[in-house]
Each structure stands twice: as structure tokens, then as C-alpha cells.
Amino acid sequence: MEKKEFKARVFGELAGLAKALAHPFRLQIIDLLAQSSRTVEEIATQLSLSMANASQHLQVLKAVNLVHVLKEGHYAHYHLADDKVVAVWQSLRELGMERLAEIERTLNDFRSQKHVFQAVTIDELLLKMEQDNVVILDVRPEKEYRAGHIPRALSIPIDQLLERIVGLPSGREVVVYCRGPFCVYADEAVDLLQNQGFAASRLEEGFPDWKSRQLPFHALSD
């Protein structure tokens, strides 16, 4: 094999991998699968896609081995190939936030219009946990919580928060987290909690970021 052909093949394969990532819905699918495995039906519902479109996007990711599928009965459960896929998504996300000013502008515009709150980092949350003066609230769907969550976190999905808010300990700071910095569940939860008199803030990152730092986490078996 000639050197030119060698480079063309290798870089061509890498370009194909990058091309598979180069779609907003496929990036959202990776963000979802970083939380827990999903069926096509669940992904279609979460992203407001038709079943056909969701399946097509999954097949593109599967073709380059970014996702795998496990069939159970009539259902096919998709999951990320490994933690390296999460790491690539997180690196792309961070690169975009650093290099593309429009992302930060969009975030700031969205939050300034709807939410006013303080955000805390993972390091700041760890310190609060050491001092044992914080309530940690996971507002993702229960399936994602069961797949993995921050220790001592309470599970109250965002669509149940209003009716279950009376059960939260009063007089303590509440730190809310969800899927990541682009997840609006935490923003909505902080807004609701503050309106009910709670001192609430959101975690800047999400559970996959916590897990990527090799910090302890809990998972519940089905």
C-alpha cells in the first residue's frame, strides 16, 4: 500500500466518524444515551422525532460503532459503545463553548429571559457534601436516575416536582442537577424551587460529567 493511499484510508475513516457526529439530533441522542440505554421509541419521544427518523439517526451512529444495540424480546435497547464516546461528546461540547461565542450567547439569552440563579461546579458541590449542608436533587426521568446518580441525591423528575416539593427538607440549600449544561430541567427546577422559597442552585455540569471524573456514584438494579 502506498503512503498516499494509507493516509487517504485512515483519514477518510476518521472523517466518516466525524460526519456521523455532525448532526444536532445525533448529538442529542449521544447526550441521552450518556444517561442510560434507550429504545427507538423512547428516543423518538424525547426528541420529538418520528420513529423512522430516530431509527435512521441511530443506524448512522451504529455504522461507525458509536452505539451498540441489545435486543430484548420485541425491543432493541441502544447504548453507547463505551465511555470514550461520552468523552468525545464532552470534549466537543467544551470546545464549542470555548470557541463558538454564539453558544454562550444563546445560553445567556435563554437563562436571562427565564431564570435567575446561581450555578455551582462539581468541586463546589463536593465541598458542600463534605459539610453535609445540602440537599441534592436529580430531576431527570427515573430511568436515568436508576442507571446512575450522585450519592445521596433524591430523585424527583421535573414533571413531578411541583406536587412533591412539600416533601423536601426545609431550611437547607438545594442543588439541582440533570443531564448536563444544556439540560433545561435543572433551570426549570431551580426556578420553581426559588418561587417556593427554597435556596436553590443548579450544578453546572450533569451526571455524566460527575461519572467521567471517576467520582463515586450509585445505581439501582431493576
Automatic annotation (TrEMBL):
Domain HTH arsR-type, residue spans: 6-100
Source superkingdom: Bacteria
Keywords of the record: DNA-binding, Transcription, Transcription regulation
Pfam families, sorted: HTH_20 (PF12840), Rhodanese (PF00581)
GO molecular function, one term: DNA binding
Domain named Rhodanese: residues: 130-219
InterPro entries documented for this protein: ArsR-like_HTH, HTH_ArsR_DNA-bd_dom, HTH_MetalResp_TranReg, Rhodanese-like_dom, Rhodanese-like_dom_sf, WH-like_DNA-bd_sf, WH_DNA-bd_sf
Entry annotated with the keyword DNA damage: no
SUPFAM superfamilies: Rhodanese/Cell cycle control phosphatase (SSF52821), Winged helix' DNA-binding domain (SSF46785)
Alphabetized NCBIfam families for the sequence: HTH_metalloreg
Name listed for the protein in its UniProt record: Metalloregulator ArsR/SmtB family transcription factor
Annotated source species: Larkinella humicola
Source taxonomy: Bacteria, Pseudomonadati, Bacteroidota, Cytophagia, Cytophagales
